[in-house]
């Protein structure tokens, strides 16, 4: 499995799409977490989501600000990465080529999942690093005191971010295995994350009790609850304290393991051609 992990890591690093997705993630995180809110604060404009004051953009809010995008927008990019990593073998017709080299299906699949988990950690660390620089620049420009979160808070935030990011990457992987393609899993995954779960939260849940109750077991609301518990702004799409932070962490972890396990079963039992 270690050889599969090394091979998949090399493929991820050398694939231009991986770097493009990372760049999009960092640009979206920077623009919507710091640039637009700071422009609103500096310009004194009124409108939707202009309730964020300058203190919300300072370094002591780094953990919450870095986690805010992961439940929906940044998470959808991790889903795409998961689909590309696993589904690309179907699109290129290279599953048979890889398996004739000796490793079993599950060894190759495990190597891909470990590489995805490592990539998710790299993305989360990059988001935290960009957020730290942006908040430091804002604090310097506004002559505000620079107070960083404690080491424990940073480690907790990075761990929670990795958990959410890896869960979405595993969802992309299992969709790729289930549909044996790239385009359809990406499309369905994005429709669910960007449309369906938001419609359920904004329209269905306030009207139907069982939908509101069912939300407590879905991956998106639990990811949003985990981010909210660690200080993510409540006006960020997908961030809401639907359940407690401890329960949300357990549910997100359960989905992560469940997605990986379902993908393994499907890959082992079904034809790869």
From TrEMBL:
Membrane-crossing residue ranges in chain numbering: 20-39, 72-92, 113-139, 159-179, 186-208, 248-267
Pfam families xref list: ABC2_membrane_4
Keyword field contains Membrane: yes
Transmembrane recorded as keyword: yes
Keywords of the record: Membrane, Transmembrane, Transmembrane helix
Domain of life: Bacteria
Protein name: ABC transporter permease subunit
UniProt source species: Micromonospora halotolerans
Lineage, highest ranks first: Bacteria, Bacillati, Actinomycetota, Actinomycetes, Micromonosporales
């Amino acid at each position: 499995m270690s050889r599969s992990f090394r091979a998949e890591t090399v493929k991820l690093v050398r694939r231009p799409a991986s770097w493009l997705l990372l760049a999009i993630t960092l640009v979206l995180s920077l623009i919507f977490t710091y640039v637009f809110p700071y422009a609103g604060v500096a310009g004194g404009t009124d409108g939707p989501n202009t309730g964020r004051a300058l203190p919300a953009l300072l370094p002591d809010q780094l953990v919450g600000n870095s986690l805010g995008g992961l439940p929906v927008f940044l998470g959808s990019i991790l889903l795409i990465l998961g689909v590309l990593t696993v589904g690309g073998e179907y699109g290129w017709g290279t599953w048979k080529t890889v398996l004739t080299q000796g490793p079993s299906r599950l060894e190759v699949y495990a190597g891909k999942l470990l590489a995805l988990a490592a990539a998710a950690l790299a993305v989360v660390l990059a988001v935290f690093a960009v957020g730290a620089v942006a908040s430091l620049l804002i604090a310097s420009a506004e002559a505000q005191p620079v107070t960083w979160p404690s080491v424990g808070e940073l480690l907790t935030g990075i761990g929670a971010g990795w958990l959410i990011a890896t869960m979405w990457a595993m969802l992309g992987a299992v969709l790729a295995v289930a549909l044996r393609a790239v385009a359809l899993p990406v499309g369905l995954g994005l429709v669910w994350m960007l449309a369906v779960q938001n419609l359920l939260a904004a329209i269905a849940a306030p009207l139907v009790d069982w939908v509101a109750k069912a939300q407590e077991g879905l991956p998106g609301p639990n990811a949003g609850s985990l981010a909210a518990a660690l200080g993510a702004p409540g006006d960020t799409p997908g961030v809401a304290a639907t359940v407690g932070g401890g329960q949300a962490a357990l549910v997100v972890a359960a989905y992560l393991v469940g997605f990986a396990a379902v993908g393994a079963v499907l890959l082992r039992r079904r034809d790869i051609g």
